[in-house]
Structures are given as C-alpha cells and as structure tokens.
Amino acid sequence: MAGNPTEILARFASTLDYDRIPARAREYCKNLLLDTFACAVAGHQGEETSQIAALASALGQSSESSVLGGDRLSLAGATVLNGYLITAVTMCDIHRATLTHVTPEVMPPALAIAERDDLSGRDLLVALAIGCEITG
Asked: Which of 39, 40, 99, 133 is the most buried (most CB within 10 A)?
C-alpha cells in the first residue's frame, strides 16, 4: 500500500466495512463500548465532574446529544463531557502496548455522530474499530 501515512489511514478508514472486521475485533469493540458506559456512569462521581459539566454546557445551547448516564447537551458539549466521564475515576481501558487510553478519544465522538446521524449499531462498531485501530 503506497502513500504517506495520512493517505493510508484515510483509505483504511473510508473503505472498512462491518463484514471485513474480524469477529474477535467486533467482540472487542463491543466489550470496550460496555466498559465505556460503565466508566462514564461511575464518572458522574468524579471530583471535577461538576466543573467539566458546566464547561460542556457552555459549549452550545442545543441538546441533540446524549451524555452517558445523564442529560443531553450540544454535540460538542456531550463529546467533551463524555470524554471526561470515561476517565474521571480512572477505570477505563488502556492500550498496553502504547500505555494510552483509547476510549475517551474514540467513543465520545463516535457515539455523538452515530446518534446525530441515526446510524446503525453496525455503523457504530465500524467507527469504533477504525478509531481503535488508528489510535492504537
């Protein structure tokens, strides 16, 4: 596959479909999604949650996107707050090879866009697989 890294990643992201994702990777993405939900619900108990929630509320006056375990905010606000909630009590996944957290960067925008565009669960899993592969 010739090209610069950005072209390679863009081609991968724009051409991947559900049926080409290995079953093991699909299951992993489902497990990450469940872990994300649990972490975000626990994150409502985080020490700085109220401050981040206030910031997220100020990012827009609309309410088109869901906050995990809570209210509805603008797409930007929900994405920011969900990203924080996932890591608020430091229980979220970690990519051991790179010692990075993948879910706070991948899950919130994928969930917000899937909700906004009324995408299917399959579409969401494709987005999650792409995000995990690219960030990992």
From this structure: 40
With beta carbons less than 8 A apart as the criterion, state whether 128 and 106 touch: yes
> Residues 55, 80: contact at Cβ < 8 Å?
yes
pLDDT digits (tens, 9 = 90+) for 116-134: 999 999 999 999 999 999 8
Contact (CB, 8 A) for 93 and 106: no
Identity of the residue numbered 105: E
**What pLDDT is recorded for position 93?**
66
Residue 95 has pLDDT above 80, yes or no: no
Alpha helices in the chain (DSSP H): 5-15, 23-43, 49-57, 75-87, 103-116, 121-135
Strands, DSSP E only, in 26-114?
A: 65-66, 72-73
